[in-house]
């Protein structure tokens, strides 16, 4: 019984990050390990190559290896680098990876492995979140091609679109009651659906400029969606 309780306590404590100093030292250590081109396991020194593809563990000693810094989210989540993503498959992959690398499973392991599992887990969460939502997925695809849209860029947006956004914002500000807010919500949702389809077509045609313009519009609507969420919280 005591052993069981201690195990639980250790398991819980494994969740929490170590002290700042220890963490910094570990991060340095991890960074140098991750950046190393040596195809050796950090633990046993055994050959077997650095972690590439799905080789999260050393084939010899089974120690968890640091994340592969060259791997992008699509590769990590086992998806084609495309705007069209099978979200059911994405979710299965997310669960599969969390079962492999979740910090809960490493509470009894070495500090290095605890640290690596936290890094893996954070990466997997971030990759899943990014690829799941069309807007962040599209922005990430553009980023992989060296195209970024800085926050607050109003450039080249046609005045007709900006007027449309302004009017929706005004309507939302004036909206009284649940029905009025829901009506605006459904308009915005339909707009986002339409834009998502257009973005998909733009990526299929490798028209990245068009994708960039459409994603910028989606970001405006996404800001409206955030305001709708706030408005729905009862005061
Ligand atoms: Zn090893």
Total E-strand runs: 0
The profile of the biggest β sheet is: none
pLDDT < 50 runs, ≥5 residues: 1-37
Q: Tell me the helix content.
A: 55-70%
Number of helices: 9
Q: Using the alpha-carbon principal axes, give the shape.
A: elongated
Computed CA radius of gyration, to the nearest angstrom: 23 Å
Distance from N terminus to C terminus (CA atoms, Å) equals 48 Å
Strand proportion: under 5%
User: Assembly type of the shown chains?
Assistant: single chain
GO molecular function: ATPase activator activity; metal ion binding; protein-folding chaperone binding
GO cellular component, one term: mitochondrion
Protein name: Iron-sulfur cluster co-chaperone protein HscB
Subcellular location: Cytoplasm; Mitochondrion
Question: What would the keywords be for this entry?
Answer:
binds zinc ion; 0% strand; mainly alpha; elongated; 235 residues
Task: Provide structural commentary.
It is a single chain. The chain is built from 9 helices and no strands. The protein is an all-alpha fold and 235 residues long. The longest helix has 28 residues. The chain starts with a helix and ends with a helix. Zinc ion (ZN) binds next to loops. The site of zinc ion has 8 residues, from loops. Homodimer. Interacts with ISCU (cytoplasmic form); this interaction stabilizes the (Fe-S) clusters on ISCU. Interacts with the CIA complex member CIAO1 (via LYR motif). InterPro entries: DnaJ_domain (IPR001623), HscB (IPR004640), HscB_4_cys (IPR040682), HscB_C_sf (IPR036386), HscB_oligo_C (IPR009073), J_dom_sf (IPR036869). It holds the Pfam family HSCB_C. It comes from Ovis ammon polii.
